[in-house]
Amino acid sequence: MAKVPNFSECQPRFIAFCKAHGLTEGDDFKPYEYIIWVQEKVAEFRKLKGFKSHEPFTDGMHAEFTRFLGR
Hints:
Layout: E1 2-3, H1 12-20, E2 28-29, H2 31-49, H3 59-69
Antiparallel strand pairs: 1-2
C-alpha cells in the first residue's frame, strides 16, 4: 500500500486516476492499480484515435492523452 501524496506534488495522469477512483490526499492505494488503469486507458485512447499499438506517442499525443484522462 501507498498513500496518495499532496496533489500539488503529482502529475496530471495520477490525479486523473485518483479522481476516477474517488481517492483523495492521504488515502491508501495500490500502485499497481494505477499502472493497470493507465495501461487500459492507453489502449482505449489508441482505439478511439485509430493509433496502432506499436506506434510511439509523439509529444502531441502525450498531451492529448493527458487531456483525454482529465475529461
